[in-house]
Amino acid sequence: MSNDKVENSKVKDCADKDGAVDNQAAESHTATHAESPISAFSLVKHDNGIAHLVMDVADESMNTLKAEFAEQITQVLAQIKADTSIIGIVLCSGKPDSFVAGADINMLNACQTKEEVVALSRQGQMIFAQLEQLTIPIVAAINGPCLGGGLELAMACHGRICSDNAKTALGLPEVQLGLLPGSGGTQRLPKLVGLQKSLDMMLTGKQLRAKQALKSGLVDDVVPNSILISAAENLVLSFSTKGKHYHKSQRKIGLVEKLLANKAGRNIVYQQAEKSVLSKTQGNYPAPLKIIDCVRTGLEASSTQGYQVEAEHFADLVMSSESQQLRHLFFATTEMKKEQGVADVKAEAILKAGVLGGGLMGGGIAFVTATKANVPVRIKDINHKGINSALKYSYDLLNKKVKRRFILKSEMQKQLAMITGTVNFTGFKSVDIVVEAVFEDLALKQEMVVAVEEHTQEQTIFASNTSSLPIHKIAAQAKRPENVIGLHYFSPVDKMPLVEIIPHENTSDKTISTTVAFAKKQGKTPIVVKDKAGFYVNRILAPYMNEAAILLLAGEPIDKIDNALVKFGFPVGPMQLLDEVGIDVGAKIGPILQADLGERFAAPAAFDKLIDDGRLGKKVNKGLYLYKQPKKGLVAKLTGLIKPLPSKPVDESIYLLLGITPKGKLSAETIAKRCLYMMLNEAARCVDEGIVRNARDGDIGAIFGIGFPPFLGGPLRYIDSVGAKSVVAQLSQWAEQYGERYSPCQALITMAENDQSYY
Ligand SMILES: C[C@H](O)CC(=O)SCCNC(=O)CCNC(=O)[C@H](O)C(C)(C)COP(=O)(O)OP(=O)(O)OC[C@H]1O[C@@H](n2cnc3c(N)ncnc32)[C@H](O)[C@@H]1OP(=O)(O)O
């Protein structure tokens, strides 16, 4: 290995990018650069005896850990050990706004066998152990994302300082990829932050901001980025003088943690964690239980066994279909961040927005516009009550953040000041986009287009948040139809990640790209879909919901249907979803779909009885489930202690109303499959008709818009994994048994005949 002296410009390079290194670079004087130019690691030695180990993967925007770095880092470590003039190391990133985003997921995708992955994991564990065993102190200086293997690397250091940069986030998000931390994370995190906190972090994948990381004991200090490196050097020096390579954690050990310090206490934590995981995942995700097992083995048996189990479990998970689908999903969403709407058509800047209607949707749209997109927003409603309700929507959400200390009150006030209201169109002259969220009525929306055109500029975009009305009809009376587009949000707007963007045939390319860019600024993942009844999400949802209704009318109990779909992996069952959305809302969309797309969209007529009975769902506390439960008496409470009472019981009177006896003859698997296959068939039609631009958008739309089980990769990936042939055979059998609505679409039949797949 070369031990070339590098010119000061090399030192300066690293300093410039970091911004923080400037002070040191100024006083630093000689430096050695101990790597070939293509190495991801360079060692820059300073006169104060501290060397900076800088990670900078060439030609990539983010640092990720790759197998081929093992040799490079081993060489650097050997050099450090050989150079007795080095008194300590600061490990930092050469990227301006990121530390390390974890192991390279592409590398994991390329693994063919479990043994290969075990070897990878063991290699990572071994290298990090070598870092930890250095006899001189090593401190990680973290600015930007420090995730997965990146945090495992930082945890192997003797200390960690992070910047207060808003981009700084520390976490082990492997579980979201169906994985576990496979380079020692399951062993080191519990020691740093305690058992409960570590399980919480690893089982949810949540990322800590700088202050939370400090409070939890994950980092030793938080400082502005401008002094990050010098603070890390100071920590190195303090370790050197104390002769100790670790800091006493600053985290406060609470009473609960003290009570759980013995084995019996810890067993309670493991059991509770397992119970909670199983109820959340329904057993569909293998990673969480394996994470608990790694932690338990490390703490209760030995570290050596803990590391061994970690590598084995990690490898099993990398090879699992669940993780493979979740990794596809990661790359699909990453790819979508780059979508422009129309390739090579640049978006116009949106500097001010208008929202029509201060209801639940309007309030949510105003909130994400102001707080996520950072764009001032003017709400127009017909009365002050509407405006106030929209303002309250934002106030309540921001106030919650203040109470949880995520933001300061002054920040809340600043964000609230970006949302203003009007009962006429004052202030609309300067808006660049108007999102309408008024009542779902075609004539009213057409009127809104005319009014908005009158009160805004030539180029102002009119985006309709309709869930079902054709956009070309909304644009029918527009003077500038090229500015009219659909922008369909999902409720609750602040939480649901998807939006559908629906150009009609005369929408301009500029309008499409600008609306896509605007939705992305609001933190949404947009899919561009065709202007046809139901667009994509409601179109694939409707047959699934109808099938659930048909099953109910055939005597399957409400909770049995819901439990079957939840067990399959949906976040809520179709019956509960109907209550949440509102049975009246579903009833409005149904006929629009039926008129345009045919009889298979006909909702069972018996459901009209629900509307006649005023069962509009949760919003009126009357639907398929009971919302106002009678107070539990002592006996019920005691019974509840033995067997948990269902949180929300079915309103049994519904069966009488519908004239059915809920006997329930079908298995949960059949119930789930029948609903699901209706969705698969429709999703296949949508790809075929070009409703979505490609299978990827179809999968993302279903996962982010409906909650299609992510571990199955989306409806189209699911068809691929089951095989089009098998889907067609099942649908054909049911078509004979139950009727036409099951007939497989031509696209699926062709795929089956030609042995084709979507991916
Ligand atoms: C053994 C270990 O325990 C196993 C692991 O570490 S598994 C990996 C765990 N890490 C993660 O899950 C983090 C994944 N990354 C992210 O969440 C986000 O990329 C981020 C928050 C770091 C940054 O987000 P953002 O700024 O929006 O940038 P984003 O567009 O996502 O990523 C930028 C580029 O880095 C790539 N990238 C980010 N993390 C990556 C990773 N872990 N592996 C491979 N590529 C990655 C992206 O694919 C993208 O590449 P491209 O520009 O060529 O398309």
Automatic annotation (TrEMBL):
Pathway: Lipid metabolism; fatty acid beta-oxidation. It catalyses: a (3S)-3-hydroxyacyl-CoA + NAD(+) = a 3-oxoacyl-CoA + NADH + H(+). The keyword Cytoplasm applies. Gene3D superfamilies: 1.10.1040.50, 2-enoyl-CoA Hydratase, Chain A, domain 1, NAD(P)-binding Rossmann-like Domain. It is an enzyme of class 4 (lyase). Keywords: Cytoplasm, Fatty acid metabolism, Isomerase, Lipid degradation, Lipid metabolism, Lyase, Multifunctional enzyme, NAD, Oxidoreductase. Residues 352-531 form the 3-hydroxyacyl-CoA dehydrogenase NAD binding domain. Residues 534-627, 671-755 form the 3-hydroxyacyl-CoA dehydrogenase C-terminal domain. It holds the Pfam family ECH_1. PROSITE patterns: 3HCDH. Its EC number is 4.2.1.17. In the central section; belongs to the 3-hydroxyacyl-CoA dehydrogenase family. This is enoyl-CoA hydratase. It comes from Colwellia asteriadis.
